[in-house]
Amino acid sequence: MRKEEWFQNLLKQSGGCLVVDGGLATHLEHLGANINDPLWSALCLIKNPELVRQVHREYLEAGAHIIITASYQATIPGFCSRGLSLAESEELLRRTVLLAVEARDAFRKSQQEKDIDDKNLQPALVAASIGSYGAYLADGSEYSGIYGPEMTLEKLKDFHRRRLQVVAEAKPDLIAFETTPNKIEAQAYVDLLREEAIDVPVWITFNSKDGVNVVSGDPFEECIGLAASCPSVVAVGINCTPPRFIHGLILNAKKVTTKPIIIYPNSGEMWDGEKKEWVVSHFCDNGVHIQDLPFSFLHPSTGVSDTDFVSYVHKWRESGASLIGGCCRTTPKTIRAISEALKRR
Ligand code: MET
Ligand SMILES: [Zn+2]
Fold this sequence. Notes:
The chain has helices at residues 3-13, 24-30, 43-47, 49-61, 76-80, 86-113, 133-137, 153-169, 183-195, 220-228, 243-256, 306-319, 332-344, and strands at residues 18-19, 66-68, 125-130, 174-180, 202-206, 233-239, 261-264, 270-272, 277-279, 321-324. By secondary structure, it is α/β, with parallel strands linked by helices. The protein has a single domain, classed as TIM Barrel. Strand 4, helix 9 and strand 5 form a beta-alpha-beta unit. Helix 8 packs across helix 9 and helix 10 crosses helix 11. The radius of gyration is 19 Å and the shape is globular. Bound molecules: methionine and zinc ion (ZN). The site of methionine (MET) has 12 residues, from helix 2 and strand 4. This is Hcy-binding domain-containing protein.
C-alpha cells in the first residue's frame, strides 16, 4: 500500500483525528532530569534511558496515538563530541526508536490484559524525531532559522544524511522532521528522502513566531508546498509555535496542500536562546500586550493553561487539523485534555 493511503486509512479508522504526544524534554524535566546541556533530551539516553521510556508510557496512557522519540537533539557529531565512538553514537540513535517501541509494546500488552478487544486497541505509532541543524547547534538558531552565509543545501544534507539512514534502519512507523526553521532545511529533507530511498513515511513540521512566515522569514505556504510535494510525506504542519497562531496557519497550509495537517503547538512561551530558558512571550495569547494586563491574568510559568489549550482544539479540528498534540511546555495532562476533548466531539 502506498504510504499516503496507509496513513489516510489509519486516520479514517480513528475517526479522522490522531492525538500526538506532548513535550518530551519538558516532561523529562518534570520527572527530575537535568537536561540543561547541548544534547538536551538526548542526554537522558546516556544518563537515564528508563526515564525516556517512562515519558513515552505516560503519554500513551494520556491518550497519545503517536509518540515521538528522544532523537530530536541526538546527533552523531553531538555524541562524538562527548567522547562516544561512531559505533556507540549510532547505537544510541537506534536506541531512541527501541525505547519508544518497547514502551508502546508494553502499553499494548497492558491494554490486552485489560481485555480490550484487538479491534478497539488504541493505535500507537512510533515517530522518530529529527531536529534541525539549529537544534544541534544548541544556540537558539532553531528559532531564528539563520544559519549564516556559509550554509549550503549540500552541507545541510551531509549533516542529516547518516542520522536519517540510521534512524530509518531502526524501523520506526514514521519519521518526524520537527521544528524546521527555514525552507533550505526542508529542501534538504526532501532531497535526502529521495536520494537515500528512505522507505519510512514522514511528516515535516515548521515553526513560526509571527503566524505568517516560518521563523527564518521564509513564506510558510512555500515551505508547506515544498514539504507536501514529497511522496514520502504523509502529513505537513506546525510544531513548537504559540497556540494563537495555529488557526491561521492551518488555513494557509490548506491553500497549498490536501495532505493531512498536523499541529502540535507549544504552550505559548518563547525560548530565550541566550539565557537558555522559556520566557513568557511579549504578547498574551489573545494578542494583547502583556504589560497592559493585570498580573493575575497571566500564567507566568506555564503560558497557556491546559484548559485554554483545549478550548482551541475544536477550532483547530474545524479548520482542518487531522493530528493534534503539544510541543514544549505541554505535558501528559495537556495530552489527556486534548484526547478527552476530541472524544467528546
Ligand atoms: C524544540 S521542539 C522539541 C520537540 C521534541 N519532540 C520534544 O518534545 O522534546
Ligand atoms: Zn517544542
